[in-house]
Amino acid sequence: MQSFDRVFNQAGSDSKSTQVVVQEPPTILPTTLGNYTAVAEDKVELRCFVTANPTATIEWTKKGKVINNGDIDGVRIDEDGTLIIDSVTADDATFYTCRAQNPAGKTEKVIRLSVIVAPILRDADEIPREAVKIDHPFSLYCPVISTPLPQITWFLDDKPIAENDANVHLSDDRRKLAVLKARTIDAGVYKCTARNSAGESSKMFEIDVLQPPFLDESRWKRKISVKEGEELEFGCPVSGVPSPTIEWVIGGQLMNKGQETRGVRISDDGKTVFIARAELAHEGAHHCVANNAAGTLDVDIDLSEQTASHY
Length: 311
Description:
The chain is about 0% helix and about 55% strand.
């Protein structure tokens, strides 16, 4: 702004022109964002929109320390005062301060930068194995480290968990999977996958559902009939998970794998009994004991012999 003054007296007159400059302190405009969110390795530009007269100088600080061009690789301040980070990392996530100053005053604004990184799962390369008895509960926890919490999906043997299964419960944040009563179909390899806009990570768990030995006559029977002189093979009519080991008591005598006595032989794996030629002495109750990590079952096998007819 310019003003013009003229002075008069008896000797004459004189005039003077004066330039008046009105200074305005800096004001950070509302268009300056207070929060930025970026994905790791993205380029980020933190802008500070300022009005001032004369033009304000803009200074940036990170955690109270002034940022100068050249101080940090990949970080610079543009001519218009924009703070540029070429490839953000998790270490760049913090509070920054934009400070504007001119001869009329100064002002500042705190700006928060959040950086989304691919989810991290603790011990992702380890596959823990757990054995659970049938009908017992078990739970798995997805050890994800990420802010904000990513989307978590659970799989069993590479198929999505049936979330409508009343026997399976997921926590609200989906980190914890709980099975109320273990069933044989619940055995297998579980995997939790954590995913966000920066990437994904997975961790696997292996679950064995143990089933104690139970009576199963689908292959071997408890009551056996054989003709005198015929050969015979029979086994212990049981099943279980894991497959039970078998011990035999034949004719009141405990027999070991591969052992043979009085024409009766135990197989090398202990699963079956072989009689080369059935005799009346073989008739009666024989006993097998099935055992696995979940329990034990005793079964009596009744062998009856049909006497050969003679004409």
